[in-house]
Structures are given as structure tokens and as C-alpha cells.
Amino acid sequence: MSQKTSFGEWLRKNAENYLLQAAADEMAARYPDFCAKPYREKGVLPFFWRNIFVPIYSRIPWDVRKKIILLSSYPGGERPHWKGRD
């Protein structure tokens, strides 16, 4: 049984995947003697994520990224506040 994923879940899944790949590529460039060149998918969508999304996302200030994450993760854009013990 396949479940439909929301846009936020789809975006988060792809963003995590390609940001992780970008970090691995950065490590491979920094330490070429210790890292093998990883396989990368070819096509329009991987090109977009790697060459457009990742560089733009990396330049967004953390405060703006945090708001984007909260809006895509929680209704109303606010994390739930848990009651403390009395």
C-alpha cells in the first residue's frame, strides 16, 4: 500500500538527499586521496537539485531557513510547546 506524501515531505526528502550528496562531494574534494568519487544520477531533476537548489539554499541565512522548515513541517509554522513538570 503506497501512501501519498505531502509537498513538505517530498521537498524535505529531496532536500536532505541532495544536501547530503553536496556535503559528500565537498569532503571528497577536500580529501581526494581518501574518498572515492560517488555515483550521481543524471537528468534534469538531479541537475536542478545539485546545481540550483543546493547553492541557493546554502546562501539563505539560518533565520530564514528555520522559518521555511517550520512552515513546511508544522501547521501554522509553530512547533508544539510541551508543558513542563510541576
Lay out the secondary structure.
Elements (H helix, E strand, L loop, with lengths): L6 H24 L13 H16 L2 H12 L13
Task: Write up what this structure looks like.
This protein is mainly α and 86 residues long. The protein has one domain. It has three helices and no strands. It has helices at 7-30, 44-59, 62-73. α1 crosses α2 (44-59). The longest helix is centred in the N-terminal third of the chain and has 24 residues, at 7-30. The mean pLDDT is 82.
Essential attributes:
86 residues; 60% helix
Helix content: 55-70%
Task: Look at the helices and sheets and give the structural class.
Answer: mainly alpha
Largest sheet: none
Instruction: Average the pLDDT over all residues and give the rounded result.
Output: 82
Radius of gyration, CA atoms, in whole angstroms: 17 Å
Number of domains: 1
Categorize the overall geometry.
elongated
Kindly report how far apart the N and C termini lie: 44 Å
Strand content: under 5%
H and E order: HHH
Quick overview of this protein structure:
This protein is mostly helical and 86 residues long. The chain has three helices and no strands.
